């Protein structure tokens, strides 16, 4: 297997649909049952202010409805599904403005970049590669191994697993912080994050505790679901649901960041309101599984799909 950016673009997993021979440079495509279900932009061309990083977009339901957004006008640094933190050792790996304690959001010249290193596995249903998180002066801060996998669940749903292992690549303790840890109440974001698309008539947030953001934002819960209808379609068409569930015990202890006003966003947050400090060489691992489904699902169906998609303990 060729490890670097050329790779073998014809590789496929058993049972997966055929992979076209040519792909756009820097994009890998996940494919199930003959359908392109997600593009992984592993070598993006983005301005430094966005904290350039690999991301998944578009991600599509089995019927082809897109359930992600990337670089919208209001938040050009929010990119589909990816891994991002607003503060890693005082460097911004989220993009946009940096929250400064006692001051508020400010534009700083502190944006980092996640750089692809090499492929470890690249098929139509699984992608594994190594990355280096570097600061604005190319100072290495984190070494990452990331795995993205997909599998078919039914004619109307499939699952997307995102796993990350982050290792402190410095010789010093390395703090990872959210704005909440610096005094911005409720802003505990940072980690594996999904930016949702524009919807018609608003979206609905579901969880085991009830419907609405207030039941799940800042809480731990076995699953979260967001349902909506594509803003570019008529009422009743292009409806979708995305279900989020922790893929391991460590991630299950993290709180959820959930936003449904102004934009749709869901993330699992390892450093909600206290810094997560990695010792030199220390590694943390996180794993979130998403179910991408057609239609507006009930809480009961969302819970069933979360159970199906969640890895066995």
Show the helix and strand layout.
Elements: E1 27-32, E2 35-41, E3 55-59, E4 81-88, E5 91-93, E6 98-100, E7 104-106, E8 113-122, E9 126-134, E10 140-154, E11 157-168, E12 174-177, E13 191-195, E14 204-206, E15 224-229, E16 239-246, H1 249-252, E17 255-259, E18 265-269, E19 276-278, E20 283-294, H2 299-309
Antiparallel strand pairs: 1-2, 2-3, 4-5, 4-12, 4-13, 6-7, 8-9, 9-10, 10-11, 11-20, 12-19, 13-18, 14-15, 15-16, 16-20, 17-18
Structure commentary:
The chain is mostly beta strands and about 325 residues long. It has one domain (about 25-310): Beta-galactosidase, Chain A, domain 5, CATH 2.70.98. Helix content is about 5%, strand content about 40%. Strands 8-9-10-11-20-16-15-14 form an eight-stranded antiparallel sheet. Strands 4, 5, 12, 13, 17, 18 and 19 form a seven-stranded antiparallel sheet that branches. A three-stranded antiparallel sheet has the order 1-2-3, with no helix packed on it. A hairpin with a 2-residue loop joins β10 and β11. The longest helix has 11 residues, at about 300-310.
Binned, the helix content reads under 10%
- CATH class reads Mainly Beta
Alpha-carbon distance between the termini? Answer: 31 Å
Tell me how many strands there are: 20
Q: Could you say which overall geometry the principal axes of the C-alpha atoms support?
A: globular
CATH topology value: Beta-galactosidase, Chain A, domain 5
Number of helices: 2
Provide the residue-averaged pLDDT.
Answer: 91
Question: Low-confidence parts lasting 5 or more residues at pLDDT below 50?
Answer: 1-21
CATH architectural label: Distorted Sandwich
From the alpha carbons, calculate the radius of gyration and give it in angstroms.
Answer: 18 Å
The ordered H/E elements are EEEEEEEEEEEEEEEEHEEEEH
The largest beta-sheet arranges its strands as 8-9-10-11-20-16-15-14
**Which class do the helix and strand fractions yield?**
mainly beta
What is the count of distinct domains? 1
In what range is the share of β-strand residues? 35-45%
- Profile the largest sheet: 8 strands, antiparallel
């Amino acid at each position: 297997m060729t490890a670097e950016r050329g790779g073998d673009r014809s590789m496929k997993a058993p049972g997966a649909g055929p992979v076209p021979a040519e792909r756009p440079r820097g994009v890998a495509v996940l494919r199930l049952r003959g359908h392109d279900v997600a593009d992984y932009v592993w070598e993006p061309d983005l301005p430094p202010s966005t904290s350039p990083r690999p991301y998944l977009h578009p991600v599509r339901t089995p019927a082809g409805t897109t359930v992600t957004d990337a670089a919208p006008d209001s938040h050009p640094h929010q990119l589909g599904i990816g891994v991002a933190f607003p503060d890693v050792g005082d460097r911004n790996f989220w993009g946009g403005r940096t929250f400064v304690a006692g001051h508020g959001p400010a534009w700083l010249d502190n944006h980092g970049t996640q750089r692809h290193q090499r492929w470890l596995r690249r098929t139509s249903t699984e992608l594994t590669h190594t990355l280096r998180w570097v600061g604005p002066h190319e100072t290495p801060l984190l070494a990452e191994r990331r795995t993205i996998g997909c599998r078919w669940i039914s004619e109307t749903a499939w699952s997307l697993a995102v796993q990350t292992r982050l290792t402190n690549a410095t010789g010093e303790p390395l703090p990872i912080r959210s704005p909440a840890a610096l005094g911005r109440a409720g802003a505990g974001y940072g980690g594996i994050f999904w930016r949702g698309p524009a919807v018609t008539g608003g979206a609905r947030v579901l969880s085991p505790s009830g419907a609405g953001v207030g039941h799940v934002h800042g809480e731990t819960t076995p699953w979260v679901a967001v349902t909506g209808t594509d803003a570019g379609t008529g009422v009743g068409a292009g409806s979708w649901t995305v279900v989020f569930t922790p893929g391991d015990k460590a991630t299950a202890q993290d709180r959820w960041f959930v936003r449904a006003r102004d934009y749709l966003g869901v993330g699992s947050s390892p450093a909600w309101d206290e810094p997560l400090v990695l010792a030199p060489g220390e590694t943390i691992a996180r794993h979130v599984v998403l179910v991408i489904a057609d239609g507006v699902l009930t809480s009961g169906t969302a819970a069933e799909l979360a159970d199906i998609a969640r890895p066995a303990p």
